[in-house]
Design goal:
The protein is of the alpha+beta class. It has a single domain, classed as Histidine kinase-like ATPase, C-terminal domain (Heat Shock Protein 90). Helices cover 27% and strands 26% of the residues. A 5-stranded antiparallel sheet has the order 1-2-3-5-4, covered by helices on one side. Helix 1 runs antiparallel to helix 2 and helix 2 packs antiparallel against helix 3. The longest helix has 18 residues.
Length: 142
């Protein structure tokens, strides 16, 4: 009898500061390197995780000593990214002016993720933003 395997989920808690963003991307690369088709998600997933993590740092109204949790899992050939923070604010898409230095992160997530959303964290403290990343087509050379 065959039983379905649970997807391998990676979870880490990082300091809620901008300097943790490269570490989050590094951990994602390491996770993807352990998957047979991980390279098919890498570029888009790194960009999306970086944007979601940076938004959590910048916009969270939680105390500075709170951590941001990241989670990755491959589910039904889609990479699920989650960024959890203790803040109460919800993300909203907005149109950035051409000379704005910030404000395009969620737009990138909306354009590049297959789907994304926001939900209340279990336990009711804060929220998490999730995004599903479809694999890039594999390049076959003949």
């Amino acid at each position: 009898m065959l039983t379905a395997r649970r997807p391998r989920t990676f979870v880490a808690r990082l300091d809620s500061r901008a300097e943790s963003t490269p570490l989050a991307r590094y951990l994602l690369r390491a996770y993807l390197s352990g998957l047979p088709t991980g390279e098919r998600y890498c570029d888009t997933a790194e960009l999306l995780l970086g944007e979601l993590f940076a938004n959590a740092v910048q916009h969270s109204d939680a105390p500075a000593d709170r951590h941001i949790e990241i989670r990755f899992a491959l589910v039904n050939s889609r990479l699920r990214l989650e960024v959890h923070d203790a803040g109460s604010g919800r993300p909203s898409l907005r149109t950035a002016a051409p000379d704005d230095e910030y404000g395009r992160g969620l737009f990138l997530v909306d354009e590049l993720a297959e789907r994304w959303g926001c939900a209340t964290r279990p336990g009711g403290i804060g929220k998490f933003i999730w995004a599903l990343v479809a694999p890039a087509p594999s390049l076959v050379t003949v």
